[in-house]
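#help-structures

NK: newbie question. if I give both the sequence and a SMILES, will the prediction place the ligand too? trying with fe (ii) ion
OV: yes, paste both and it writes out the complex. here, I ran yours:
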Amino acid sequence: MRKLTLMAKVQDEIGHAQLLYSAAETLGKSREEMTNDLINGKSKYSNVFNYPAFTWADTAVIAWLIDAGAIVNQVANSKGSYGPYCRALDRICSEESFHLKYGHDSVVTLATGTPTQRKMVQEALTRWWPPIMHFFGPSDKMSQHTEILMRWKVKMASNDDMRQQFLNTYVPKIWDLKLTIPDPNLKFNEETKKWDYTEPDWDEFKRVINGDGPCNAERLAVRRMAEERGRWIREALLNKSEKYVVPLA
Ligand SMILES: [Fe+2]
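OV: that's the protein plus ligand as structure tokens.
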């Protein structure tokens, strides 16, 4: 049942890509150009797609906490100024909330299960914590794009504000499960009313964003293969259908 749910989530995520590409197309760049930029390594995409998932617990931590991060980010930005983007984000957020519930349920099941399951989910959390902290983008004092994107109301909260909002909601839930977050400096600061944490390794973040993460090459190779193997059907749909027959193998 959980495997089926994960497959349904993957299907939703592919739908989210379609919605966001459609929104981006309204700015005048064709879908084909965007796909080419992606598979040729020109486009940047989220850091979290470039890390491996070793165990079932990784999928649970991703579904709970990465999707939670995406919700924080996208709920804020859905109140922005550009209609096509905001409408896509609205729709995405409602589906993401199901992913989050599924992820939370999976993490709770593992964290309250056998010692092996607990160990597995703790290891996954330890692996994913640095990418999760990176997920919201560089700290505000380093961010190059925040100022202009916030001025245009494309981005509605700064990276640090979104990171704080995520920590506020999810650190207590993680601690409730008696899981350990791998940052000895993480604590709520009563004076600043914000979370203190170890500054994430921004050099690693930049490497991953610029194509040199643990899985970038593999991810793009798979995307290139999908593009190649799907060519015949795209051409068939473009009014050349009599030339093509469905391959049997
Ligand atoms: Fe999701």
